[in-house]
What we know:
By secondary structure, the protein is α+β, with helices and mostly antiparallel strands. It is built from 3 helices and 5 strands; from the N terminus they run H-H-E-E-H-E-E-E. A 5-stranded antiparallel β-sheet has the order 2-1-3-4-5.
Amino acid sequence: MNEVCGHIQSITEIKPPKELVCEECIKNGGEWVHLRTCQTCGATLCCDSSPHKHATKHYHRSGHPVVISAEPGERWLWCYKDEVMAEY
């Protein structure tokens, strides 16, 4: 099992999604499969199974390393930088 990285350890309060929509897909009429919420800025964006992969693009643009699953009932975090997952 992977150890939890410092980026995930530094999360003291989970930022939930404001809405269950991909903020970028809504702007351009795109569709998404699953949603992720950035734990730095709170943006909710689509996952890598979605056509536009907005959450990963956000990480590469912003450097914000940790997202949560914004899917109802799922309680996990993912660190893009360290490629580590943790449940909460």
